[in-house]
Amino acid sequence: MKSFEEASRTQPMQALANQLQEGRRVDEGYDSRQGPIHLRIYKDLEGTIDLHIHSIPDASPRLLDDIEVAAQAKAVKMTAVVLKCHATATPDRAYIAQRAVGGGIEVYGIICLNPAVGGMNPEAVRMAIRMGAKGVWMPSTWSKHNVQYMQLYRHPMGTETLGRDPIEEGETVLSKEAQIKPEVKEILALVAEQDVMLSTGHLSLNEAHMLIDEACQVGVKKLSVHTVNYHVMGYPLEDQKILVQKGAFGEYGFTSLPYPIWEPADPSRRISLDDVCRSIRNVGAEHCVLSTDSGQVTSPPPIECMRLWIELLRVKGVDQEEIDTMTKLNPAKLLGLESRNPGNRGEMTPC
Fold this sequence. Notes:
Shape: globular
CATH topology of the domain at 113-325: TIM Barrel
């Protein structure tokens, strides 16, 4: 048996030799003139699904267009990606992007209920679903909760990065009597009937609880709590547990990790990688989804964000089975693609 000193010298050298040997292999379809994507770098992305990508065209600056997102995801053998826009529905764009890259990757769109689509607009939801939308997102940066956060901390977030004017009021799912609005109930009925995904968006904690409760009552089966680790939400761990017990998945977004653009105005709201790992351990990977929430010009491309997400969690001790659950099995459930991921051993917790 080698001594510790010998092993400490030889193991890194062997790892380096393996890496160099692997790097001599040329990926199928390699073309140095086109800026190749080496599959060996992105091998962990095969079969994964990213539920949350922002792309061009958009009312905000973005890094890649729809077709580039789809092409890169296809190149690294991902199963599916979902295009999200704060300002418009995206199922039509997803259809075109999938056709443009010649298939081999599922590309889906959603509708986010911000003012540009009429806010809580059942007809917009009905048409988006008819056009193939796989999800309905509650208001995001235009939500009342998000607007109040910006006002409270005098934070330019949204006006700087989304290129919009400041707003005084935001969208809410609640009436003046603090009850779920009738039009929101109509939307939830459509979501349940068509069996598509519902995401809480940037709602307050109280709104998220009330929305999930109402959704369960009307039979919505595919529920997601939007980027739990985004500092604007800041949902306590105990509430995360309750929300998943009601049947929702907690979504954790890579670009919500603290970095210069999204650094919270209040440092006490900073949610670190360790905080995310604590949530995953307490909530259970079977109730979690990893997305990138990427596409900003200040973040890496989506496939790189997903690669980093997986590597960072692996370094923190999250095992491969848990990673597969959060990047393959659970997102597949939310998109109705379970058959694409054999070996799925769990069912969603009923409401």
